[in-house]
Design a protein that fits this description.
- InterPro entries: Ig_E-set (IPR014756), MoCF_OxRdtse_dimer (IPR005066), Mopterin_OxRdtase_euk (IPR008335), OxRdtase_Mopterin-bd_dom (IPR000572), OxRdtase_Mopterin-bd_sf (IPR036374).
- The protein is mostly beta strands and 356 residues long.
- It has two domains: 225 residues, Alpha-Beta Complex (Sulfite Oxidase, Chain A, domain 2), CATH 3.90.420; 111 residues, Immunoglobulin-like (Sandwich).
- 5% of the residues lie in helices and 39% in strands.
- The protein has four helices and 23 strands.
- The strands form six sheets. A five-stranded mixed β-sheet has the order 4-3-12-7-8.
- Strand 18 and strand 19 form a beta hairpin.
- The chain is globular.
C-alpha cells in the first residue's frame, strides 16, 4: 500500500506583467522574517540586461580626487556589512488609490525583506575621495530601454544626496540571504538604500558618478515624484522615505468566518525609526484596541509582526482595520495622500469579513 502524504503547500508570485517582469510577493501567506528568493517581489522598468564580463566591474568617477574601477572580486575581499532590509516598491498598493491612477496595479505585495551583504558605500568612496564641488552621487544600472513618454533609449539611473549616500548602512551589495544576489534582483552588484523606497536601490550597478549639479534623469525628476495635482506639476516633491504602514495578512478580505475566536495578524513597517504600536478596529474605525507587537528587533530596519485575538460572538458583517505608529510619532492615516502616479499608499489596512 502506498502511503499518502500531504502536499507541501506554498504560495506563488502574483503576476502584474511579464515584459518587463513585475510580480508580487504573496504577502498574505508568509510568516518568516526573511523572504526566500522564490517569493521575493520583482519590479523592472526594462527587459533584463545581459550579464557580461563588464558587469563585474564598477567604475567610480566624476567629482572625485582619484577615479577608480573596482573588480567584483576586489569588493568581496573588503570589510562587509550584513543588514536585514525590507525593500518596498513606491507603487505598492497603487491599485487602492481612488480616484484610480495609471501604472502597475500592485496589491500589497510589492514588498519583501532580505539579508543583504555588501560594502558600505562611504567606505568605497574613501578610495576615491570627493571634490569640494560634489553635490550628488548618481548610480547607473546595466538595464536600459525605451519609455513611452520620451524619445530614445534610457538606462535606469538614480541619484542620492551626499547625506544619504554617506549613511553607514547604504551598501554596495553582492549577496542576498547568504548567496550571490540572484540575477533577477541585480546580480552581481546592487545598491541598497535602507529606509527609502526601493527605486533608490539600483540593480545591476555599473557606475557611480559624483556630480556638482542636480541629476535630472527621467527616473529622478519625472518618475518617483509625488504629483498632488492631476493635470499640473505644481507642488511636486521627490519620493524618498518609506511611510509608516501596516497590512492585515489574515483574515483575507471578504472571508467568511465561523463565530468564535480568531487571530487577526499582519506586518507593520516604517522608514523612520521603528514600529511602536499597532491598533486594530473591528467596527470600521469606531473603536481601536492595541495589538500585540513583537519585541523591537535589534535589526534597525526590519518589519514587525503583530497579532490581535478577536472574539466574534455575533453573526454579521464587519470591517476590520489596522493602523501603525512609529517611534517618530508618524501614524498611518485613514486615507492616503492621492497623487497621480500612485506612490506611497499607506492608508489603514482594511478587510471586510462576514461571520456566520
Amino acid at each position: 500500500m502506498v502511503p499518502l502524504h500531504s502536499p507541501i503547500l506554498k504560495p506563488y508570485l502574483i503576476t502584474r506583467g511579464l515584459v518587463p517582469e513585475n510580480q508580487e510577493h504573496p504577502i498574505h501567506f508568509v510568516s518568516a522574517a526573511i523572504t526566500p528568493e522564490s517569493s521575493f517581489y520583482l519590479r523592472n522598468h526594462f527587459p533584463y540586461p545581459r550579464i557580461s564580463e563588464q558587469s563585474f566591474v564598477l567604475s567610480v568617477g566624476g567629482e572625485v580626487q582619484k577615479p577608480r574601477t573596482f573588480q567584483y572580486q576586489e569588493l568581496l575581499r573588503m570589510p562587509f556589512k550584513e543588514l536585514i532590509v525590507p525593500l518596498e516598491c513606491a507603487g505598492n498598493n497603487r491599485g487602492l488609490f481612488r480616484p484610480r491612477v495609471f501604472g502597475e496595479q500592485w496589491g500589497g505585495g510589492a514588498i519583501s525583506q532580505g539579508v543583504w551583504r555588501g560594502v558600505a558605500l562611504r567606505e568605497l568612496l574613501r578610495y576615491t575621495g570627493l571634490q569640494a564641488s560634489a553635490k550628488e552621487i548618481v548610480f547607473e544600472g546595466h538595464d536600459f530601454g525605451r519609455r513611452p513618454d520620451l524619445e530614445g533609449e534610457f538606462v535606469f539611473a538614480r541619484s542620492l544626496p551626499l547625506e544619504k549616500a554617506f549613511h553607514p548602512d547604504t551598501l554596495i551589495a553582492y549577496a542576498l540571504n547568504g548567496e550571490p544576489i540572484p540575477y533577477k534582483h541585480g546580480y552581481p552588484l546592487r545598491l541598497i538604500v535602507p529606509q527609502w523606497y526601493a527605486m533608490a536601490s539600483v540593480k545591476w550597478l555599473r557606475s557611480i558618478t559624483v556630480t556638482r549639479t542636480h541629476f535630472n534623469g527621467p527616473f529622478q525628476d519625472i518618475d518617483y515624484m509625488f504629483y498632488p495635482e492631476k493635470d499640473s506639476d505644481t507642488g511636486k516633491i521627490p519620493v524618498t522615505t518609506i511611510q509608516v504602514n501596516s497590512i492585515i495578512q489574515q483574515p483575507l478580505n471578504r472571508s467568511v468566518l465561523d463565530k468564535g475566536m480568531h487571530q487577526i495578524y499582519g506586518l507593520a513597517w516604517t522608514g523612520t525609526g521603528s514600529i511602536k504600536k499597532v491598533e486594530i478596529s473591528t467596527d470600521g474605525g469606531g473603536n481601536w484596541r492595541p495589538a500585540v507587537v513583537q519585541p523591537e528587533s535589534p535589526n534597525a530596519y526590519s518589519w514587525t509582526f503583530w497579532n490581535y485575538t478577536w472574539f466574534a460572538d455575533q453573526k454579521g458583517e464587519y470591517t476590520i482595520m489596522s493602523r501603525a505608529t512609529d517611534s517618530f510619532g508618524f501614524v498611518q492615516p485613514a486615507a492616503a495622500k492621492w497623487n497621480r502616479k500612485g506612490y506611497g499608499y499607506n492608508a489603514y489596512s482594511v478587510v471586510h469579513i462576514k461571520v456566520e
